[in-house]
Amino acid sequence: MTRERGEAAAASILEGFTQQMREIAEVSRKRTQLTASASAASGRITVTVNADHIVIATRFSTDIGDLTYDEIAKAVTSASQKASAEVAFRTKELLKPISDKRARMPRLSELFEGMPDVQAEAPTLPPASLAAPNSRERLAQQATPAPEFTDALDYDDWRTSGNSGGATSREW
Fold first, then answer.
1. In a domain, 7, yes or no
2. Count of alpha carbons within 13 Å of 152, Cβ hemisphere only?
3. pTM beyond 0.70, yes or no
4. Domain of 81: which CATH number?
C-alpha cells in the first residue's frame, strides 16, 4: 500500500513537472513574438524593440529635419528606453502566471533538511544604469566596489563539517 502511494505521488509530481514544462515552452514561444514601440520628439521618432530589448526598427517622420543632430540622438535614446521598459513590462506580465505558480511551490530547503535556502542567499542584480557613457552617474558607479561574499564555504570544508547527505546522499 505504501509503495502504491509513493508511485502515485511520483507520477503526480512527474505529470505536474511535464505540464509546467509545456507552459514554460508556450510562454517562451509567445515571448519571442513580443515587441514594443515608443515615440519621442513629438512623434517624429519611433523606435521598436524586441523581447531581448534589441532595436529592430527606427522610423523618422518627414519633418525630422526640424531637429538638430543632438535632439535626434536624445530622442532616439529616449524612445529606445521607453520601448525597452514597455517590452520588459509585457514580458513580466507574460511570465506572471509561471512566477506565481513557482512562488507557491515549496523550496528545496523546506523539502530537504539542512539544504540552504538558495533563493534567499542569491544576490539581487541592480538595474543597469541608463546614464550616458562617461556621465557623472556612470563614473561614480565605477568607483563603487563590487560586493564581496564573506560567508561562502569551500565545498570540501562544507563536506568535512558534517553536512553530508541531502539530495546526493547514498541513503536515498
1. no
2. 9
3. no
4. 3.30.1310.10
